[in-house]
Amino acid sequence: MTSRIRKKSMPSKAEERAQTTPSEVNKNSGDEMTDRNVHVKDYLRYYLSLSTSPGFAVLLDGPWGIGKTFVIKKFLDTLDKETTPYIYVSLYGIRSVDDIDDAILQGMYPVLANKSVELGGRALKSIGKYFNVELDLKAKDFLNKSKANVYVFDDLERCEMPINAVMGYINVFVEHEGRKVILIANEKEIDDQSKYKRVREKLVGKVFEVQSSLEEALQGFFVAVKDEAARHFISSSVSIISEVYHQSEMNNLRVLQQTILDFERLHIVLEERHRKNDEAMKALLALLFALSFEVKAGRLAPDDMKNRRTHLLSSYMRNKQEDYVPPKIIAVNDRYPLARVDADLLSDDTLIDLIVRGIVDRQKIRDELDGSSFFFTAEREPAWRTVWNSHERTEEEFNVALAEMTRAFAAHEYTVLGEVRHVFGIQLRLSRIGVTAGSHAQVVAEAKSYVDYLYEHGLLEPIEPHRNRFGVDFDSHAGLGYMEASSAEFKELSDYLNQKRHAAAVDLRPAIANDLLKAMLDDPSQFLRRICLTNHEDNEFYNIPVLASLHAREFVDAFLGLHPEKQRTVMLALKMRYQNGMIDHDLVDERLWATEVRDQILTASAAMSPISKDRLQRLVTYGLDEALVSTEQS
């Protein structure tokens, strides 16, 4: 698409002073659509060539990111600074007239833009130091001597001064000093529109509405790509980039530039065999650009990208249901017909890392590409994954994979939890669409039996109940979302799987408790770190009631055999463990155990010498009574 810069009709007092423009500028609207970028540059050249003061400013208007600054800077680069000296100033963050003076001065002497040079309206000693002279001047004293006849003020809407104040300042250049001024702004974002329109009427004579100058901008963006291989591929994919950009209807060149640079970072970490797969690279580029545009446009949140492929697959079957509310990713798929939004090139998490967090995980990206349908080989792809990707495989490949998946399931070969869940979801999906004869109830029963087998043979990864207290489970594995994840049957199976994992964790507690008892005898400080919430990494059991699996008598006998100094460390550990009400929350199963330990220590102390009896009673009071007695009284 060629650049489109449309001249607004805006009769004003300033415009009445505007002289007749060249005939090339006054074309009819049909001709003007052919190359409006040329037209605005023609007008600006005409405006700057006027031998007398025009008495008005020219305004380039458009939304953020549309390319206004790009257009004006490309134009300024064509000027001869000897015959047409100009100063470019950004008003972004400007708060006072002194700030504008300083910004103009920095435009006159770029060395002053260095952060180490402080102006701020104070005496310009920094300039004097640079030129090796003593100065006690204000910026304005230098501006009066400026040879520049052209001033460009960018980011008008981002100026923090009152709009009438900044426009009044600029008007001095136009009306009193006879300078030529070009303003760049997003007029819709300017505060106090009523004041702005009144001042604009007196100052601005011509307004051009800037729209995306895509082709010209792309050439500049390509040059900014430093990696040669990435630059070559991106520049050779201009048709894809242009198509996806137009489909986004964003008209934001800054977002486009950011996305190009993001893709460069991705391209750099790929191996040569990835780059040689032209189909995969074009699909990857279109996918990343489409999702990136949607996120940066605010139409897609990170969570909306999760289960991307599952949602798209489900939508084909559910879009006719009256109560079906399609996820946002469906609209993205419809908006970008050129992009394969359901492509399995990268997982949802990796795409979120790339687009939202700016994280580029080299090995993860390479591994996911290798596992995608663009790089897979039938020999390397797991059977369950081939079945999952049935829409991208031949029927023969699907049937072979289904038979292998069924065999492996019957032989209990799936032990990785993510794969187990995938097989459950796939079986539910195949039952739902009639590929397999078993009912949903039969699938659920067989899946529970499978979980029982894993539990009974110690093949199930344990998890403590409170480590999963909110029922949080990852909704995908190996870059693929679980099929039927929102169905009641899949949730029932997930709950059952977690119950058995919890049981497996409880089964391990006696062995853990004995290990902790040994640690108490060998190194009481390590015992403390492992059972209490501390800054150490080994505090893995601070909220798990493992001590309840230990016989109280065994613990007390071991405790009484310790040196008094070590006894104090152990009691400190129990005090820290049960404080802040933990004994009645996560560790409530240890309440009876702790009570028995306290009572047995006190009973044993009664037969000891007065000094030992007093010491142990004080230790019990210090370590256990506060946690146990306060709760008993409440």
Strand content: 5-15%
Helix content bin:
55-70%
Shape: flat
Oligomer type: single chain
Output the radius of gyration.
Answer: 36 Å
Query: How many DSSP H or I helices?
Result: 30
| Biggest sheet descriptor | 6 strands, mixed
Q: Regions with pLDDT < 50 over 5+ consecutive residues?
A: 1-11, 15-34, 115-137
Mean pLDDT across the residues is 85
First-last Cα distance: 76 Å
In terms of structural class, how would the helical and strand content be classed? Answer: mainly alpha
Number of strands: 8
- Order of strands side by side in the largest beta sheet? 1-6-2-5-4-3
Tell me what you see in this structure.
The model is unreliable at 1-11, 15-34 and 115-137 (pLDDT under 50). Strand 7 and strand 8 form a beta hairpin. With 634 residues, the chain is mainly alpha-helical. Helices cover 55% and strands 6% of the residues. Helix 11 crosses helix 13 (253-268). The strands form 2 sheets. The chain has a 6-stranded mixed sheet with strand order 1-6-2-5-4-3, with helices on both faces. Strands 7-8 form a two-stranded antiparallel ribbon.
